[in-house]
UniProtKB/TrEMBL annotation:
GO terms for cellular component: clathrin vesicle coat; plasma membrane. GO terms for biological process: endocytosis; protein transport. Involved in endocytosis. The gene is LOC109879292. It is found in: Cell membrane; Cytoplasmic vesicle, Clathrin-coated vesicle membrane. Residues 163-197, 211-249 are annotated as: Disordered. This is Adaptin ear-binding coat-associated protein 1. Residues 216-230 have a biased composition (Low complexity).
Length: 249
């Protein structure tokens, strides 16, 4: 049962729940909600599911005043404190208890299937948490007999460290102005040197200069001082440069 000093947490609240008086169980077969007077519930109110420690409490309270009508402590689920019926998922058999410890079985039901689903899941989650807490408690109390790995030094055991004796860098390699080392020349194969590539000479033909128009000047290569005589009677009666008029006097 719950101990004093533990805080109470609310797991689920449903505003509408119906309570039924159920007939005594005639055999060990499952309880059927069809045997109840479903159309005439004996009490209607709200249901509040709380938890203190590992124990859950299903409390039936008045909708307006909040006065407690009955409550059922639940130590495990599914269990004797709350059972499902065989013909519906909306109805349950609840074992209620008073302060003196007397108990009675009543039937409860929800009008909405979603309310019964939430009620069922709230109880499942709580007792799933209780099971995990028990497993953790058992593991903490069970001594660990597995051999532990000893990484400590044995008596007289020593260790040698080589510090500062790494591979020295080659400082004879020349470096460029940027601080990066130059690559060495490729090794010669068999002592023979690689001949430099041949120099190819190419003759470029100069561009031909345009010939001077023979109509302007016809120079004799043998007599550069001779004057070209103009044609007194050009063909067609006009100069090839056009007709020129005499200047006015």
């Amino acid at each position: 049962m719950a101990t004093e000093g533990e805080y109470e947490s609310i797991l689920c609240v449903k505003p509408d729940v119906n309570v039924y008086r159920i007939p005594p169980r005639a055999s060990n077969r499952g309880v059927r909600a069809a045997d109840w007077k479903l159309d005439a519930p004996d009490w209607t109110g709200r249901m509040r599911v709380t938890a203190r420690g590992k124990v859950a409490f299903i409390k039936l309270e008045d909708k307006i005043s909040g006065e407690l009508f009955a409550q059922a402590p639940v130590d495990e689920y599914p269990g004797i404190a709350i059972e499902t019926v065989s013909d519906s998922s909306r109805y349950f058999v609840l074992r209620i208890q008073d302060e003196s410890g007397r108990s009675a079985f009543i039937g409860i039901g929800f009008g909405d299937r979603g309310d019964s689903f939430d009620f069922n899941v709230a109880l499942q989650d709580h007792f799933k948490w209780v099971k995990q807490e028990l497993e953790i408690s058992k593991q903490s109390q069970t001594p660990d007999n597995t051999p532990k790995l000893d990484l400590g030094f044995k008596e007289g055991q020593t260790i040698t460290l080589n510090i500062g004796q790494g591979r020295k860098r080659d400082k004879s390699r020349p470096q460029s102005a940027g601080g990066f080392g130059l690559l060495p020349p490729p090794p010669s194969g068999g002592g023979s040197k690689i001949a430099p590539p041949p120099i190819i000479w190419q003759y470029v033909q100069p561009a031909s200069q345009p010939q001077t128009t023979r109509c302007l000047l016809d120079l004799d290569s043998s007599n550069s001082n001779s004057v070209v005589q103009p044609n007194p009677n050009p063909a067609g009666g006009s100069d090839m440069w056009g007709d020129f008029s005499a200047p006015e006097k």
